Amino acid sequence: MPNMQPAVLVVDDEVHSLDAIRRTLEETFPILTASSADRAKEILDQRSVSVVLCDQRMPGLTGVEFLKQVRERWPHIVRIIISGYTDLEDVIAGINDAGIYCYIQKPWAPDHLLATIRQAVDTQGLRGDLQRLDLELRSSPSVLLQRRSEKMARVRDEFSFERIVRAPGSPVDPVCEVAARVARYDLPVLVQGESGTGKELLARAIHYASPRADQAFVVENLASIADPLIESELFGHKRGAFTGAYEDHIGLFQRADGGTVFLDEIGDTSPALQVKLLRVLQEGEVRPVGSTRTLQVDVRLIAATHRDLETAVREGRFREDLYYRLAGITLAMPPLRERPGDLPAIAARLLEQAARDLGREALTFSADALSTLVTYPWPGNIRELRNEIYRAVVLSEDHCIRSTAFSRKVQYGQVGQTVPGMNHGIPATGTLQERLDAIEAVVLKEALLRHRWNKTRAAQELGLSRVGLRQKLLRFRLEEK
């Protein structure tokens, strides 16, 4: 089935920059590209576009000038601009005239760019929903209330703890059980875990299981915002607070008033920002940049980090009082290498998503492909797994994904190196018996995972008695999942 997602138009006169943005976004959205404002307007006359992402520096029209024209002729399109630090003054000055949704500072991070475009697409969809709801409200208020209730129920279900993909008995189960109990109470939560383990997904589930579920859930990655801009983005600013601040700007905490704020990578914040975040937690108030008055806000804060904050506190890099305010409840998302039993289910969900996004029919994994995925340690966690599966879908010509479609490091089970001729992380050194034992342990583990730890079926596949299989499991310490 062809991809029906909203198209994103990228406008940049630099070919390398255009290609980099296209590669970052094309796995998730249909991408149209233009190297000039004139070509972009031709595309907008012919194609339906949800988001325009434009560089500020272009020959002829600047990005802001072009987006002003877009606002006049295609007001429904969400407008985003990319700018270097030296151009920020001009961009900020033109934000209101051009109706710019947000700006992204160079050098941009792929994850932040993708997340921003996702939010912009969602915003464009919500605008359409609001227009339809407005018509319904005029004709029948009761229909509006019913539709709103139905939509809220769907959102709660989509982001529920049950929707976090995992197998029965997963290490994620106890994390979700604690999170579900915590969700009902208005306490700050600190989610710890490596990059790509699903910390934001857990935070969303907490929000939609809480009494604040019908209010805003606002996300910000603190590591992706330049230091001079971060206070303005979080707390807002007043007109005239700095060069280019021609209008008041509402900060993230004000936009989330009544709802939940999720701050990712909080361990990367500066000491000055830590003081201001502490004030939000203690007093429930923020002070916009350039203002002499504080504003009361009612938000629940969920923070996340891949860093060891306790060590950072001991070394003086993170405020102790802020840490204890954030860590009212601490949850730890386990890395993918500690949850191999979940990997087949996660991989199947990602394969389904990749096939849908890339316009392919239903695909399946071969036994060797699934075995390869299970035995690789995944230092990049689910984000790395997703990239490998999208790659495999693109490279596979038939309906079965084989291990040869994965990158060499995944095929050979090595992190940071590949050893041709070796498979699934079998050691390249050691005595013959030690290496044979390692191979036998991998084969046993693969069979058990393939049969979801059903020992009778695994023993039948391997030509062993159940007693013989149990002895080998004890020998290789595989008796427990």
TrEMBL record:
Q: Which organism is it from?
A: Paraburkholderia aromaticivorans
Tell me where in this chain the PTM 4-aspartylphosphate is found. 55
* GO biological processes: phosphorelay signal transduction system; regulation of DNA-templated transcription
Molecular-function GO terms, alphabetical: ATP binding; sequence-specific DNA binding
Q: Does the keyword Ubl conjugation apply?
A: no
> Would the keyword DNA-binding be found if you checked this record's keyword annotation?
yes
Give the Response regulatory domain ranges: 7-121
SMART domains for this protein: AAA (SM00382), REC (SM00448)
Q: What's this protein's name?
A: Sigma-54-dependent Fis family transcriptional regulator
Record's keyword terms, sorted: ATP-binding, DNA-binding, Nucleotide-binding, Phosphoprotein, Plasmid, Transcription, Transcription regulation
Indicate the segments forming the Sigma-54 factor interaction domain, all copies: 165-394
InterPro entries the record matches: AAA+_ATPase, AAA_lid_NorR, CheY-like_superfamily, Homeodomain-like_sf, HTH_Fis, P-loop_NTPase, Sig_transdc_resp-reg_receiver, Sigma_54_int
